[in-house]
């Protein structure tokens, strides 16, 4: 009973403070032009990916050689490729794949990095040393080289590309989660719960993790675009999606020999990648400002 009574008031105060922080962050988010712009841009891509089969009469894979290399026109707004496939259709279907790649890769990175960072920052000692050395080893390799090494072991396909990208960006989550945990575990409300005999798992999940989510959310919003670009690069090198999959990086690979003959084949997939990265960066900048507890509401 003593432990419960000691923990209760501190936990309630921490919960109230957390709710107040998130409420203020939401108000700042709504007032941020960059955040709203990035959110709307990403939402538009999600909607486009969902409704693609209903708004285009073409199949993204079927070939029609009689219409090969047609420039942009009313019939084919983005033109056609060397196999007569409608590029607009392939870009829209590629939105599904690229968004999926981005979200899955970041999910893998966060699922690996956040628990390791929490453990390293909270337990310290040999746990911290082992996780730190593992992180240093991963960071010692250039990200592209590390991903290519993983792809060599697993084999070249889209699923393995997502795993490789996720592992390659996981060290960023480990470092951020570890640093945030180191500072948060010294807060008075965490020390009070520990003194009251609170279980370690409960402290980590209820009192530390919710209070370090802000920088992790910002990192996630930025890494989605980076993961898409990373996976597109692997596909461009022939290590990701395989033809005829309408993935933006794979489309650029097929189009590189037509740069002068048919400019529209590489331009539109490249613009789609640029659009998504711009959207995630705008959203990330807005979230960073919104989730900053020192921000002043104008």
Number of helices: 11
What's the N-to-C terminus distance?
46 Å
Number of strands: 0
Return the structural class: mainly alpha
Broad shape: elongated
Look at the structure and give the mean pLDDT. Answer: 85
State the domain count: 1
Computed CA radius of gyration, to the nearest angstrom: 23 Å
Estimated share of beta-strand residues? under 5%
| Uncertain segments | 1-6
- Which fold does the CATH topology refer to? MetI-like fold
Biggest sheet character? none
The CATH architecture name reads Orthogonal Bundle
CATH class: Mainly Alpha
User: Helical amount among residues, as a percent range?
Assistant: over 70%
| CATH homolog superfamily | MetI-like
SSE string, helices as H and strands as E:
HHHHHHHHHHH
Describe the model:
Helix content is 74%, strand content 0%. The protein is mainly α and 298 residues long. α2 packs across α3 and α7 runs antiparallel to α8. It contains eleven helices and no strands. The N terminus is likely disordered. It has a single domain, classed as MetI-like fold, CATH 1.10.3720.10.
Task: Give the SSE layout.
Layout: H1 2-30, H2 33-55, H3 87-123, H4 125-140, H5 143-154, H6 158-184, H7 188-195, H8 200-208, H9 213-236, H10 248-255, H11 264-290
Helix pairs in contact: 1-7, 1-11, 2-3, 2-11, 3-4, 3-6, 3-9, 3-11, 4-6, 5-6, 6-9, 7-8, 9-10, 9-11, 10-11
Concise description?
It contains eleven helices and no strands. The protein has 298 residues and is mainly α.
What attributes characterize this protein structure?
elongated; mainly alpha; disordered N terminus; single chain; about 300 residues
């Amino acid at each position: 009973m003593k432990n419960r009574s000691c923990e209760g008031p501190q936990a309630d105060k921490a919960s109230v403070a957390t709710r107040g922080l998130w409420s203020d962050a939401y108000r700042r988010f709504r007032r941020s032009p960059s955040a709203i712009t990035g959110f709307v841009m990403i939402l538009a891509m999600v909607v486009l990916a969902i409704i693609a089969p209903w708004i285009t009469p073409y199949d993204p894979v079927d070939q029609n050689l009689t219409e090969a290399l047609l420039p942009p026109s009313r019939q084919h707004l983005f033109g056609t490729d060397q196999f007569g496939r409608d590029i607009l259709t392939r870009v829209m279907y590629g939105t599904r794949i690229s968004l999926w790649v981005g979200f899955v890769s970041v999910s893998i990175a966060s699922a690996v990095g956040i628990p390791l960072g929490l453990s390293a920052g909270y337990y310290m000692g040999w746990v911290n040393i082992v996780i730190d050395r593992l992180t240093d080893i991963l960071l010692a390799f250039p990200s592209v080289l590390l991903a290519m090494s993983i792809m060599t072991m697993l084999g070249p396909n889209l699923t393995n590309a997502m795993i490789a990208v996720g592992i390659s960006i996981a060290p960023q989550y480990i470092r951020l989660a570890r640093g945030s945990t180191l500072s948060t575990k010294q807060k008075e409300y965490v020390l009070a719960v520990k003194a009251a005999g609170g279980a370690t798992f409960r402290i980590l999940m209820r009192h530390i993790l919710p209070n370090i989510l802000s920088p992790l959310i910002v990192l996630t919003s930025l890494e989605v675009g980076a993961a898409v670009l990373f996976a597109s690069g692997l596909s461009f090198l022939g290590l990701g999606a395989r033809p005829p999959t309408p993935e933006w990086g794979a489309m650029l690979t097929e189009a590189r020999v037509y740069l002068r003959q048919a400019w529209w084949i590489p331009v539109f997939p490249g613009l789609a990648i640029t659009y998504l990265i711009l959207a995630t960066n705008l959203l990330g900048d807005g979230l960073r400002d919104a989730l900053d507890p020192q921000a002043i509401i104008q």
